[in-house]
Automatic annotation (TrEMBL):
Gene: LOC111466398
Coiled coil: none
Record lineage: Eukaryota, Viridiplantae, Streptophyta, Embryophyta, Tracheophyta
Protein name: Shewanella-like protein phosphatase 2
Composition-biased stretches (Low complexity): 42-52
N-terminal signal peptide: none
Disordered, as annotated region: 39-67
An example molecular function term from Gene Ontology annotations: hydrolase activity
Classification via InterPro entries: Calcineurin-like_PHP (IPR004843), Metallo-depent_PP-like (IPR029052), MPP_Shelphs (IPR041787)
Xref: Pfam families: Metallophos
Species of the source: Cucurbita maxima (Pumpkin)
Record domain Calcineurin-like phosphoesterase: where: 75-184
Superkingdom to which the source organism belongs: Eukaryota
Length: 411
């Protein structure tokens, strides 16, 4: 079909072209200089329902873009908590062979799961969100997939709980607020464009108990991350909260029998709808308090004897095809490890400088081979070598033989 280059058509398209240019300008300014590639159209049936006990192949059920059940890919990478540290995040992805030195996706058809907690404790939170979005689009063109998950810190920030925010994190959002407001003012000047909604409307300019120097950053963070905010709605609403990939169940904290009975797809959809502003200020109850899916620590205590293996087996038995649960949330100073005969694999290594500044590590599943750890810790193995966690003794014994990790603890 021939393009319409008439004066009327060009003038008609100017407002949308200007809006797109302004959005790209703001993104570039906020993300640290990233141009997001065009987004691939979403498939008609991206969400999938639970497989039956007799057939573990997932079947599509709705037009939602969330994934709950996925078949095993040829290569699967699991990445733990990132907590606002872009440098360490990139180091982990390079370790997995997913990006090159310039940050471009080279992972081909690999599926990567990032288990949540991008937010808090660091100053690169927005930059990581933008970077992951860029990689999602690049990966999709190569047949790969990146799935981001909700951690307790994503839930907390959407609720307005900023107790783990750093001053650098507040400053990053203050800068976002300035650029976003400039972009809205530019759009408002264009005849033919709907006047943009002001995300700061109704948010106070001062906050009791917060130092005056942080008021603007605090205000911008609320504007960006409240339910259906410009950042929460754009990025966090795409996150899944519970994910089953082949034989592996991914969740930030952990699952209890009641969570499974409630419904994994239902959890994902309700959390998404809440982040989109469809169900009030506070997250659903299963995302709050100590037994929540993003807060649970029953299977992630560093002491293997404190892990409730019996309960874990019961939970896995109620999820068709599940053999293991992979979790973040609780820092493992000894690195990625498995307990309960490797039915519980804990992948939060505290790599962010805002945590324990641990050595980046990722978990890799390659075809039918046993899962392995890719570590940058020179005290264990050379970079890109691995520890087999599917051993008779379990990873704990392997780590004991090789010695503990040496990590720098931030005061």
């Amino acid at each position: 079909m021939p393009m319409d280059y008439s004066k009327e058509a060009i003038c008609r398209d100017v407002p949308n072209l200007l809006s797109s240019f302004v959005d790209s300008f703001v993104d570039f300014s906020v993300s640290g200089g990233l141009f997001l590639p065009p987004d691939s159209p979403a498939p008609d049936s991206a969400s999938q329902t639970a497989p039956s006990l007799r057939n573990h192949k997932p079947e599509p059920s709705s037009s939602s873009q969330l994934h709950t059940w996925l078949p095993s890919p040829e290569r699967l990478i699991a990445v733990g908590d990132l907590h606002g540290d872009l440098s360490k995040s990139k180091e982990a992805l390079r370790l997995a062979g997913l990006i090159d030195g310039s940050g471009k996706w080279i992972g081909g058809s690999t599926t990567m799961v990032q288990i949540g907690d991008v937010l808090d404790r660091g100053g690169d939170e927005l930059k990581i969100l933008y970077f992951l979005e860029k990689l999602k689009r690049e990966a999709a063109k190569d047949g790969g997939m990146i799935i981001s998950m909700n951690g307790n810190h994503e839930i907390m920030n959407v609720e307005g709980d900023f107790r783990y925010v750093t001053k650098e994190g507040l400053e990053e959002f203050r800068v976002w607020g300035d650029w976003f407001s400039i972009g809205n003012k530019m759009k408002a000047l264009c005849v033919g464009l709907e006047i943009p909604k002001d995300p700061f409307q109704g948010i106070p300019t001062a906050f009791r108990g917060v130092k005056e120097e942080f008021h603007s950053g605090f205000r911008a963070r609320i504007a960006a991350l409240h339910p259906n905010g410009p950042i929460s709605g754009r990025f966090l609403s795409q996150n899944t909260t519970v994910l089953v990939v082949g034989e592996s169940v991914f969740v930030h904290g952990g699952l209890l029998p009641g969570h499974v009975e409630y419904g994994l797809e239902r959890i994902n959809e309700e959390v998404r709808d809440w982040i989109k502003g469809l169900s009030g200020k506070f997250a659903p109850d299963y995302c709050r308090r100590s037994n929540a899916v993003v807060w649970l620590r029953k299977f992630s205590d560093e002491s293997a004897t404190k892990c409730d293996c019996s309960l874990l087996r019961h939970v896995l038995d109620t999820i068709p095809g599940a053999k293991r649960m992979i979790m973040g949330h609780t820092i493992q100073t000894a690195g990625i490890n498995g307990v309960c005969n490797n039915q519980a694999i804990r992948i939060d290594v505290g790599m962010s400088k805002g945590c324990t500044n641990g050595f980046p590590e990722v978990l890799e599943f390659n075809g039918n081979s046993p899962p392995r750890i890719l570590t940058s810790n020179p005290h264990l193995k050379k970079p890109m070598n691995s520890l087999n966690i599917d051993s008779k003794e379990g990873l704990g014994q392997l780590l004991h033989e090789q010695g503990p990790k040496q990590v720098e603890v931030k005061a």
